[in-house]
TrEMBL record:
Catalytic activity, EC: 4.3.2.2
Alphabetical list of Pfam families matching this protein: ASL_C, Lyase_1
GO MF terms held by the record: (S)-2-(5-amino-1-(5-phospho-D-ribosyl)imidazole-4-carboxamido) succinate lyase (fumarate-forming) activity; N6-(1,2-dicarboxyethyl)AMP AMP-lyase (fumarate-forming) activity
GO CC terms in record: cytosol
Biological process terms in GO annotation: 'de novo' AMP biosynthetic process; 'de novo' IMP biosynthetic process
Family to which this protein belongs: Belongs to the lyase 1 family. Adenylosuccinate lyase subfamily.
Protein name: Adenylosuccinate lyase
Lyase found in the keyword field: yes
Function as written in the Swiss-Prot or TrEMBL entry: Catalyzes two reactions in de novo purine nucleotide biosynthesis. Catalyzes the breakdown of 5-aminoimidazole- (N-succinylocarboxamide) ribotide (SAICAR or 2-[5-amino-1-(5-phospho-beta-D-ribosyl)imidazole-4-carboxamido]succinate) to 5-aminoimidazole-4-carboxamide ribotide (AICAR or 5-amino-1-(5-phospho-beta-D-ribosyl)imidazole-4-carboxamide) and fumarate, and of adenylosuccinate (ADS or N(6)-(1,2-dicarboxyethyl)-AMP) to adenosine monophosphate (AMP) and fumarate.
Organism the protein comes from: Buchnera aphidicola subsp. Diuraphis noxia
Oligomer status and interactors: Homotetramer. Residues from neighboring subunits contribute catalytic and substrate-binding residues to each active site.
Length: 456
């Protein structure tokens, strides 16, 4: 059976392949080879740049473009050639090294220094930096732009619905009113915090040999400060340097990275569920899409499927991340391979999030506020005014204020007349009675509309 979107085992490359296509360049086997090839070539270029220290033949800078073109012109055929070599070596990084040596040997200029390809490197020197660059690109090119779109969409809704009153529900029961804009602001602020956090997470890399001590480097060149060269090399790639490691970079930053994404995802799950609930309450209507079907038997249905799809995929993504968060920082002694197969699923983990982000963006575009329903619910719940009334009564020293309102309202159907009769009976200044009588469930919204204006 030929592999395509219909025959793929995973929905990431099957049903949702259009949503995850953007990840293939980074996280596919082809992408991983290309990142590793780039790290090998950059390290080779670093060796060339210190050729005088290493007592090597100097290579003119104009010839470096030959090396750069190996990366720029890397094809699927090249990747297949590496896989072919791997069948013999049974080692993917060694196969990559042999492939690169073959490519570079086609230029006589580098013939005298071919053995300095992969010089002093353990496989993990190449792999850890490759993963770091993959995650850096995924963050900057995919995750942050999608988060930014979600946050911007929510912010747009905040100001669109800034003054639309909403009957709050605490414990699922009628409670002190708010506005739809303010309720969305709560999510916006939470999401924005993690957007800032993930931008500032350091992505680390190491280049220090088999157990992190430059053992082989120093036997070959004992007078060279390889620690300094390692720092220069790693930071030149736009990532931070980890100076102290075993054979592997310990992946603490990956755990931190996924913890941040997982928390953003958890906030988004909360958001999806609340929007789903508001749709169920008919606070939001969904715009019908021509020719779409909501049910195979109930023609009237418009299901909130985008928010359900997003919630489900966020849960899957978080499940993968949770394993990585706890697994990756642990390695037996100087090295074990249990992290290797887990790391190959970085793209899978992020893919479920990407599917979810695109689903929620699709769902938000279909929403329309239903102010009629929202006002109806508010007008049916005059009992929410028991809170401000008893609070004003307390101000004027009326005993058992809370208890009086509890007796009047708890478990009873309350309307405007009942509330106004009670206010009229109070021994408080007339101006306060007039002020209380101006309150309605629709205008008892506190500073909900005003504090939104302070958003960044």
């Amino acid at each position: 059976m030929k592999l395509n979107s219909l025959t793929a085992i995973s929905p990431i490359d099957g049903r949702y392949s259009k949503s995850t296509l953007v990840l293939r360049e980074i996280f596919s086997e082809f992408g991983f080879f290309k990142y590793r090839l780039n790290v090998e070539i950059q390290w080779f270029k670093k060796i060339i740049s210190i050729s005088e220290l290493l007592e090597l033949k100097k290579i003119d800078d104009k010839n470096i473009s030959f090396l750069n073109n190996i990366i720029n012109d890397f094809t699927e055929e090249d990747a297949s050639q590496i896989k072919k070599i791997e069948k013999t070596t049974q080692h993917d990084v060694k196969a990559l090294e042999y492939f690169l040596k073959d490519k570079i040997s086609k230029s006589e200029i580098f013939s005298s220094i071919l053995e300095f390809i992969h010089f002093g490197c353990t496989s993990e020197d190449i792999n850890n930096i490759s993963y770091a660059l993959m995650l850096k690109d995924a963050r900057n090119k995919i995750i942050l732009p999608l988060w930014s779109k979600i946050i911007a969409s929510v912010k747009n809704m905040i100001f669109k619905y800034q003054h639309v009153p909403l009957l709050s529900l605490t414990h699922g029961q009628p409670a002190t009113p708010s506005t739809m804009g303010k309720e969305l602001t709560n999510f916006y602020y939470r999401m924005q915090r993690y957007y800032k956090k993930i931008k500032n997470i350091e992505i680390l890399g190491k280049m220090n040999g088999t157990t992190g001590n430059y053992n082989a480097h120093l036997v070959a060149y004992p007078k060279i400060n390889w620690h300094k060269i390692s720092q220069e090399f790693v930071t030149s790639l736009g990532i931070s340097w980890n100076p102290y490691t075993t054979q592997i970079e310990p992946h603490d930053y990956i755990s931190e990275f996924f913890s941040c994404i997982s928390l953003f995802n958890t906030i988004l799950i909360n958001f999806n569920r609340d929007i789903w609930g508001y749709i169920s309450l008919n606070y939001f209507k969904q715009k019908p899409v021509e020719n779409e079907v909501g049910s195979s038997i109930m023609p009237h249905k418009i299901n909130p499927i985008d928010f359900e799809n997003s919630e489900g995929n966020l849960g899957l993504s978080n499940a993968f991340m949770n394993h990585m968060i706890h697994k990756l920082p642990i390695s037996r002694w100087q090295r074990d391979l249990s992290d290797s197969t887990v790391l190959r699923n970085l793209g899978v983990t992020i893919a479920y999030s990407v599917i979810a982000y695109k689903s929620v963006l699709s769902g938000l575009k279909k929403l329309e506020i239903n102010e009629v329903q929202m006002l109806k619910n508010l007008n049916e719940n005059w009992s929410v005014l028991s809170e401000p009334i008893q609070t004003v009564m307390r101000r004027y020293g009326i005993k058992n204020s809370y208890e009086q309102l509890k007796k009047l309202t708890r478990g009873k159907k309350i309307n405007k007349n009942i509330i106004h009769m009670f206010i009229a009976s109070l021994e408080i200044p007339e101006k306060e009675k007039k002020r209380l009588k101006k309150l309605t469930p629709c205008n008892y919204i506190g500073a909900a509309s005003q504090i939104i204006n302070e958003l960044e």
